[in-house]
Amino acid sequence: MSRRILLALAAALLTGVFWAVASTTPPRSQRMQHSPQWKDGTFHNPQPLWNDFTGAIGSILRRNPHAAPRSGELPVVRPALETPPASGLRATWLGHSTVYLDIDGTRVLTDPVWGPRASPLSWAGPKRWYAPVIPLGDLPKPHVVVISHDHYDHLDRPTLRAMRDWDVRFVVPLGVGARLEGWGIPKARITELDWWESATAGSLEITCTPARHASGRTPFDKDRTLWAGYAFRGASHRVYFSGDTGLFPGMADIGSRLGPFDLTLIEAGAYGEAWPDWHLGPEQAVKAHELVQGRVLLPIHWGLFDLAAHGWTEPVERVLAAARIRGAAVVVPKPGQGVEPGAPWSQERWWPLLPWKTAAEAPIVATLDGLKPGALTR
Length: 378
What we know:
7-stranded mixed β-sheet, Metallo-beta-lactamase, Chain A, 8 helices
């Protein structure tokens, strides 16, 4: 085994040891254990996740030749973040699930990933397709950084370590705060929430919402931290951020309790027929948008990493196709381009026209009980 692999394993082990100690220290461990989602030492979804492991392996062996873009296929723009939005609400998609949100005077950054790979290793794993659209040091400091869960494409250690000295608030699901503390972020600036709990940042109310997913960064800590989405409610606007999630009935509760939402940021990429409960997929992203009572949908969780076997443009093609059928309003900005949902929008096809599979050819249909596909979509 090479020295580089040994060092990587040692670093992962030390990080895991720190997290294990920090996460079992009262009062953090007490809050985790008293969560309705906690059972037998891990967090659980109300609806189990269904997996077809044989099918998942088969999809990897049959990877789409257009799974990643060629050079020049993905145009990016330098974001304009300094000037407040005229409408009071602007979302700037920075790639994957990283969004810079300016809502009623409060600046929020979701799942920031500036690192080169979605991986525990600096030299292996999914590599980003383009450099960050703005250097982290040039980013106007947000008031709050929100993390949905601890998977590597959402919780990026190099990025969070670079934020250690930022005077910002970090809002995370239960258990994730221990990871941030291990990377040098002061405990006083970390707020951990369970589903339906809220915190405030200035005049903005941030509510941790249920999601249907999983967590973990090693084989030894699966589901030991919580996963979540968030609702942001300001004086005049409301935004929903899904994090990673499969479709589940509780989305209607999110809409009725916290909506309607002027804008939804919903994951629509990195899906597969063999694991339909882990991520929404395009058609169910539109369905989720309707369930939470969204007005304008901005699809996220695509366009930066190769994390599934489908073509890289397929998520957006299928989202737009489903939206046309269902009459949903969708905006697909270039990476770095800001969107104000209340302003006129003319959709530009900035991605290339490549072959893609339709919903009929490759359906993504969530299960309700982990056993019977199709229970949520009939």
